[in-house]
Amino acid sequence: MGNVEMALAVLAKMFLRGCSPNVHTFTSLMKGYFMGGRLCEALDLWNRMIQEGSEPNTVAYNTLIHGLCSYGKMVEAVSVSQKMERNGVFPNETTYSTLIDGFAKAGDLVGASEIWNKMITNGCLPNVVVYTCMVDVLCRNSMFNHALHLIENMANGNCPPNTITFNTFIKGLCCSGKTEWAMKVLNQMRQYGCAPNVTTYNEVLDGLFNAKRTREALQIVGEIEEMEIKSNLVTYNTILSGFCHAGMFKGALQIAGKLLVGGTKPDSITYNTVIYAYCKQGEVKTAIQLVDRLTKKGEGYPDVFTYTSLLWGVCNWIGVDDAVVYLDKMINEGICPNRATWNALVRGLFSKLGHLGPIHTVDNILANGEVT
Ligand SMILES: *[C@@H]1O[C@H](CO)[C@@H](O)[C@H](O)[C@H]1NC(C)=O
Ligand SMILES: *[C@@H]1O[C@H](CO)[C@@H](O)[C@H](O)[C@H]1NC(C)=O
C-alpha cells in the first residue's frame, strides 16, 4: 500500500523478537521503496540482503529489475538479469516482459529486440503482454506496418491480441497524427474479438481533436453514447479541451454540465478548461464566481492556469485595473504568476493604450502555458 514507514516499524519489531528477515521480507520492503520513489534505499536494502546471506530468488530479482526499469535504468536492469543467470536463478517470462516493457517505454527498439531474441533462445514463449510491448516500441519508432504485421501474427498464432494490444497500436497511430488509420483499426478490432473500451475511444478522440478533425471527433462522441460506453474523466476532459481548441465554447460548457450530471468528479483540468471557456465566451463574471468557489474548496485549486485564464478574461472583457486585483489575489494565495500570466497582463495594458488590437493570444495557455 506504499506505507513503507509502517513496514519498517514492523521490521523493527521483528528484530526485537529475534526473528530474522528473509528474502521475502527484504523483497517486500524493496518493492515498497521502489513504489515510494526511494531508489537509493531500495538498492541499499538489496545490498544488505546479500550481506546478510539471503539468497535472492526469482521474485526478488524480478522486483529489483522491475524497480530499475521503472526508473529507466535499463543498463543496470539488464546487468542484473545477467547476474541472475550467472547465479543459477533463471529469468522467467515476467523477467523478460519487464525488461521488454522498460525498453519499450524508452522507445529503444534494439534493446527490446535483443531481449525478445534472448527470451526465444531460452525457450520462453512470448505472451500477450510481451507482444503488446513490442507493438508499443514499434509504434514509438514509427514502424506501424511492422506493428500491424506483429498483431496479425499474434492472431494467426496461439497468442491472440487483446484490447490493450489494439489500444497501444491506436495510441501510437494517433500520436503520429495517423488518425485515419487509427479509425480503421478501431473498426477492425472487433473482427479480432476485441471490443473497444473507453480507453480506445479516449485515444481516438484525442488524436482527432489534435488533428483538428472535429467533425469525426463528434461522430466518435456520438458512437460512445450509442455503444453505451461509460465515459470517464479522461473522456470528458478530452472532449472539453477539444471543443475549446475548436472554438466551440458553448459545446464545451454543455459537456461540463453532462459530466456533473453523470456523477463524474471533475479535476483541476476540468475546472481550468471550464474557466477558460467561460472567459473566451465573455462570461467572465461566471468564471470569477467559479474561481471563488474553487478557492473555498482548497485542495490545490485554483492554480496558475486558472488565474492566467481569468486575468486574460478580465483584461479582455472588463479592464486591466480589475485584472490587477486578481493578480494581487493570486499572489496573496501564494500562486506564482508565470510568463503567460504576465503576457496576458502586458497585452491587456498595451491594448488599453491602443497600441495593439484586441488580445487573441490566450489559446495556447492551457496547452503549454506560453503566449507569444
Ligand atoms: C515468474 O516470476 C514471477 C515473480 O516475479 C512470478 O510471479 C511468476 O509466477 C513466475 N512465472 C512463472 C511462469 O514461473
Ligand atoms: C481498457 O483498456 C485499457 C488498456 O488499454 C485498460 O487499462 C483499462 O482498464 C480498460 N478499461 C476497461 C473499462 O476495461
3D architecture notes:
The protein has a domain at 126-208. Helix content is 71%, strand content 0%. It is built from 21 helices and no strands. The model is unreliable at 357-361 and 364-372 (pLDDT under 50). Bound molecules: 2-acetamido-2-deoxy-beta-D-glucopyranose (NAG) (2 copies).
Beta strands, count: 0
Strand content: under 5%
Q: Give the low-confidence spans.
A: 357-361, 364-372
Distance between the termini: 45 Å
Bound molecules: 2-acetamido-2-deoxy-beta-D-glucopyranose
Describe the global form.
globular
| Overall pLDDT metric | 91
**Helix fraction by DSSP (H/I, runs of at least 4):** over 70%
- Major sheet attributes: none
Q: Any chance you could write out the topology, listing elements then pairs?
A:
Elements: H1 4-16, H2 23-35, H3 39-51, H4 58-70, H5 74-86, H6 93-105, H7 109-121, H8 128-140, H9 144-156, H10 163-175, H11 179-188, H12 198-210, H13 214-226, H14 233-245, H15 249-261, H16 268-281, H17 284-297, H18 304-317, H19 320-332, H20 339-352, H21 365-368
Helix pairs in contact: 1-2, 2-3, 2-4, 4-5, 4-6, 5-6, 6-7, 6-8, 7-8, 8-9, 8-10, 9-10, 10-11, 10-12, 11-12, 12-13, 12-14, 14-15, 14-16, 15-16, 16-17, 16-18, 17-18, 18-19, 18-20
Bound molecules: 2-acetamido-2-deoxy-beta-D-glucopyranose (2 copies).
Notable features of this structure?
single chain, mainly alpha, 71% helix, 372 residues, binds 2-acetamido-2-deoxy-beta-D-glucopyranose, 21 helices
What is shown here, in short?
This protein is 71% helix and 0% strand.
